[in-house]
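FYI - complex with coenzyme A, inputs then prediction.
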Amino acid sequence: MELIGPALTLRPPGPDDADALFALGRDPEVVRWFSWGPYTSGAEPRAWIAAQVGRRERGEALALAMLHHEHGLVGITELAEWSRRDRRAVVGTWFARRWWGSGLNAESKRLVALLAFGHCGLERLGAYADVGNARSRAALVKAGFEEEGVLRGFHRHGEEQKSVASFSLLRTEWRAGAVAGELRGAVPEAFRLG
Ligand SMILES: CC(C)(COP(=O)(O)OP(=O)(O)OC[C@H]1O[C@@H](n2cnc3c(N)ncnc32)[C@H](O)[C@@H]1OP(=O)(O)O)[C@@H](O)C(=O)NCCC(=O)NCCS
């Protein structure tokens, strides 16, 4: 599948993305709030890309490479923590430092919302941000998510148990026409809730 927006195409990552992903994920500033990274060898992005096939087939997570129409790979976004019963998933996103503040994050969130609500049939799109990640928290609010509170000791980073702020966007709040996005191909079966 490919979801094509004004500046970005979102599609599952493949082996050919490994070198570009390595270059992006080597930046300590980009991964500062993450439980992984920065990448130190090309084997890490290659292993991550290979693992996405199984995660997709099992319905665990739908990771998408974000490709700028002119500049190629600029980041990754994924829908994880799927609950088919409750029709919800959580979006997580990272961009190379060069693209922060560029407006691409807003487009990516609109495209992911189109995918989640318009094509997958979700009712709730959640998001988490480390409580200290003020930029991410502000970006989520700007993108129309509501901050719901803090989940204490929620995320494990090494030996540390981190608290996260929780956000959500509901189908009833989603602005369906906010972005022109064309879906080519089909959303993987495991992520179509009907
Ligand atoms: C999080 C991320 C996707 C957001 O995308 P972005 O393009 O940087 O977001 P935007 O610039 O659209 O919005 C960020 C807003 O936060 C503001 N901001 C920046 N630093 C801030 C701070 N310390 N405190 C409060 N607000 C801050 C910015 O000014 C901007 O608001 P404005 O447009 O009104 O000026 C991107 O920064 C990123 O990839 N970061 C690294 C990975 C990451 O942390 N991902 C999130 C995991 S939860």
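The chain has a mean pLDDT of 97. The domain at 2-191 is CATH 3.40.630.30 (Aminopeptidase).
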